[in-house]
């Protein structure tokens, strides 16, 4: 299992293309394919906030569903977009408005096509990916050791939103416990969700969401080598979006 796992993309297609090229992938066929058979992994939150969410959906759909040369675990933004496409009542905010604006600018025919691609991608994805014989887990916001192998409601909440306490910060964002400090499993958990200035390794966990959409960078973890690769963001830097304290 040789896989390059990429953090939260959030519609930053330019950085995705640049990072995959840096990792040695060729885009000759229109999607990133590695000449040595390496595959890509995605920790979710493909869309929202960034400029090219629908382009990101198209490429990840081709990789995961059409060519079956990538692994994808959905994030909370993916879940919300899925509910929007189902016709459920969702609040179009916190980034979803950018994806919806892109979607509504399309013709009805193109809308149907991109909606079907995303629905197929989401519906065929497990809640989290367990691979390499159980040695590697890709989960959007992480996962507790005792939750691996389970998919009940508490697991889904944890995987999509993190270890939320129910309390809120002054800005309205949820207070999240630092579950990685308590993790003592042997499997490596690769996740994102919470933007950090630099990829953060604690015990057998790696947070690789380095806030590309907030002006940080897009980061990939090469497994099993555990090498980090990143490219700088083209987006404006928003320092308050990054978590720097974990006490």
TrEMBL record:
Name the domain of life this protein comes from.
Bacteria
Q: Which GO terms describe its molecular function?
A: phosphatase activity
Transmembrane regions: none
Q: Which residue intervals define the domain Calcineurin-like phosphoesterase in the entry?
A: 1-197
State a single Pfam family of this protein.
Answer: Metallophos
User: Which Gene Ontology cellular-component terms appear in the entry?
Assistant: cytoplasm
Q: Which CDD domains match?
A: MPP_Prp_like
Q: Which InterPro entries match?
A: Ap4A_hydrolase, Calcineurin-like_PHP, Metallo-depent_PP-like, MPP_PrpE-like, Ser/Thr-sp_prot-phosphatase
Coiled-coil annotation: which residues? none
Q: What is the protein named? A: Bis(5'-nucleosyl)-tetraphosphatase PrpE
Which organism was this protein described from? Peribacillus asahii
Identify the coding gene: prpE
């Amino acid at each position: 299992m040789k896989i390059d796992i990429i953090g939260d993309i959030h519609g930053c297609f330019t950085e995705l293309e640049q990072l995959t090229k840096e990792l040695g992938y060729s885009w000759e066929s229109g999607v990133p394919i590695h000449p040595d058979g390496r595959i890509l992994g995605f920790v979710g939150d493909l869309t929202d906030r960034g400029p090219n969410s629908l382009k990101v959906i198209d490429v990840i759909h081709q990789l995961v569903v059409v060519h079956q040369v990538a692994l994808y675990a959905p994030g909370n933004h993916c879940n919300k977009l899925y509910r929007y496409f189902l016709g459920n009542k969702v609040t179009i905010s916190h980034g979803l408005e950018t994806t919806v604006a892109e979607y509504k600018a399309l013709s009805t025919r193109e809308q149907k096509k991109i909606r079907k691609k995303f629905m197929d991608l989401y519906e065929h994805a497990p809640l989290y990916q367990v691979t390499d014989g159980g040695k590697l887990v890709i989960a959007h916001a992480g996962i507790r050791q005792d939750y691996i192998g389970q998919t009940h409601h508490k697991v889904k909440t944890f995987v999509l939103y993190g270890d939320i306490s129910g309390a809120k910060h002054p800005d309205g964002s949820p207070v999240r416990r630092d579950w990685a400090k308590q993790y003592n499993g042997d499997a490596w958990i690769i996740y994102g969700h919470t933007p950090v200035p630099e990829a953060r390794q604690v015990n057998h966990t790696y947070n690789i969401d380095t806030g590309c959409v907030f002006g940080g960078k897009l980061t990939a973890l090469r497994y099993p080598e555990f090498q980090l690769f990143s490219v700088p963001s083209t987006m404006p830097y928003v320092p308050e979006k990054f978590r720097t304290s974990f006490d």
